[in-house]
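Lecture 7 notes: from sequence to structure.

We start with a single chain of 793 residues. Read the sequence below before looking at the structure.
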Amino acid sequence: MIDQGGNGRGGNVSGFGIGQAVRRREDHRFLTGAGSYVGDVKRARMAHMCVIYSDQAHADIVRIDVKAAMESPGVLLVLTGQDAENEGLGGLPPYFMPEDAGGPPGFRTIRPILVSDRVRCVGDRVVAVIAETADQARDAAEAVEIEYSPRPCVTTPDGAAASDAPEIWPGCEGNRSFTLAFGDPERTDEAFARSAFVVRLDLRNNRLSANSIEPRCALGEFVMNDGDGQYILHTSSQNPHGVRKMLANSVLAIPETCLRVISPDVGGGFGMKADPYPEDALVLWAARKLGRPVRWIASRSESLAGDNHGRDQVASAQMAFDENGRAIGLRVRAYHALGAYVASATVAPITFSMRMLPGVYDIPAIDVRTSAMFTNCSPTGPYRGAGRPEACFMLERLMDEAGRVSGLGQVEIRRRNLIAEQALPYATPTGFTYDSGDFAGMMDKCLELADWEGFAARRQASEGRGLVRGRAVTCYIESAGVFNERMELRFDPSGGVSILAGTHSHGQGHATAFAQLIHDWLGIPSEQIRHVQGDTDAVTFGRGTYAARSSMLASTALRAAADEAIARCSPMAASILETDVDAVLFSEGLFRAAATNRTVSLQQVVRGFFAPMGVPGGQSLGLSTVGTAGGEAPNFPNGAHVCEVEVDPETGAIRIDRYTVVDDVGKAINPMICEGQIIGGIAQGVGQALVEEVVYDPATGQLLSGSFSDYGMLRTDTMPTIAARLEEIPCKTNPVGVKGVGESGTIAAPPTVVNAVLDALRPLGVTDLQMPLTSARIWSAIDAAASRKAEPA
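Now the structure, written as tokens:
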């Protein structure tokens, strides 16, 4: 799958430090079935929960009758929304709103853990049934009678903005929670007025489901410790401390110390598992009431209906150019679907979908705005890329259109507009400052690696087989690293160390990459470095992992913790070396006495902190250090993608023949992990471009893609061999020089694939397509274009 593209770093590289492509230490247990997920956790007397989800998109609840369910075999408890209200349980608020950061005010919602009055989407939680076995809980759920009084519904963000759209939330005018705007409208109007040509496109980013390999799971317990009750939640979450905060403060109204959240191995998150769901609260509530553990595991259909979705944006985009093909203005009007609630951190993708619109291009005037709209669909939230893919899709589709209209072509139109390396640091009109990069260089290296010049021969060969071939190049950038982070180093008497990570690894390889950092900085052997995460009783605090944040924030915090360890150890080393502390030097894991050249390893020094009597150097017993990060500016990973496709005009079938990517990742901690993350992201982006879409019936709001029989998932035989190359232009705003990598592939893949397909189809008269580019949609577009050509003038 991976062609390293000549970067000279294969898997057989000696050493373990920064920059080495060492194998992930966690992979062995995953590949041998030794991983431990929530579904693997079992407790004595464990009960099982089944949740009844609304089958109505928008309706008043008239009556709920649980009598027959309560009398069903094995049933222990049935819970309703009225029960939650009677016990004073709260709901789930949004993680933040624009006004919390100085933005415009908005309409907030609270998502009930069980709805008591009015459901607003298929998948709203209505009743929870707890029984001795999962089968008994499901059987009893069938006996619950729920009577609804249906209301009109709306399933699209632009439909929700229509004057005749049904009201989803009383008091929310026009179903609009908030509107975000960036730029200078007057300056942009002036740019459009003097432009030589303007390109316009109406674009849609299809709604997606994360479909992590492990569905969401939750196991709740309530235990008595020394007279104080404590809730314990095992949950498949990317952000255990965030889950604890929201559940304790907003739902249970208890001190956070009374709730322990454990997030063990997590089989994929992609942003969907970044925050708590109603089921997390329900298993805790039920466990307290029953005095025994309660577990819930989602089915795949429940996940498709009940998980937060991603994307779902419609936009009208225009770009103005001067006579030399230089972009002088960008105007966008968009609607972004919230679904039924402002859930999770959904404000983030909506914000980034506008703030990242300038991309890597020098566009002097912009006027972009988007409205967050309620719809009768499952809530949306961050999904891998979180707004950056939407921005990149709009921008790169416009650039391709401009290349076609101007006659400059795909490459030259971009070359004329890329931000010059000498212009860095560069302040965008939306308030970001790019500190480092070589955007033209990334594109040129990608074109060379992709053999752009050899396309004509490959196209001729395709035509000889009755196929049409197209190509596209995309330039992308993203903003990585948000909030702050805390990392702790806890040393043991043997000289080994545990990294207590505030981040959460669920596929990113933190146990390996963080150990590489500490090995490089402190000289501790890799086998004596332990990685601890995902338990709020073991790790004091953390923000979790999302938004490509861990490489920068965790490494910066670890650097600070390592520096503190060296500073703490220096007096001890001076005592051992019988010299002054000012005469002690540290490098490559050794303290050295400048005068005598005597040395002692950091590990030997650490053992001194655990002396049974009279700790040398006047130090305290034991050694642990803490590092924090968060004042640094974000970093900006960037790069270029090139894709070539073949399309069969007879069937509409697409084959991606070649895919090439060059990424600037700053300093690569582990190149192999970087490349794996990039390629995984490309697979998700290709999935959005070609097959994935959450579909609701527009009249009834019923979910039409509620299983893998109806929701398209990318297959391995669709993915091509990917030629991937890493370029390292260190970031200047963090001490390690790293740039994030987890979102990058997903950002650039959709426009690259779509533009390549359109390039192939333009000779057939097809000039526009909306994602996903299914074979049926392509065949219909080809057929419609042929019919138009056949019509008499």
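Residues 550-577 form the longest helix (28 residues). Keep this in mind for problem set 3.
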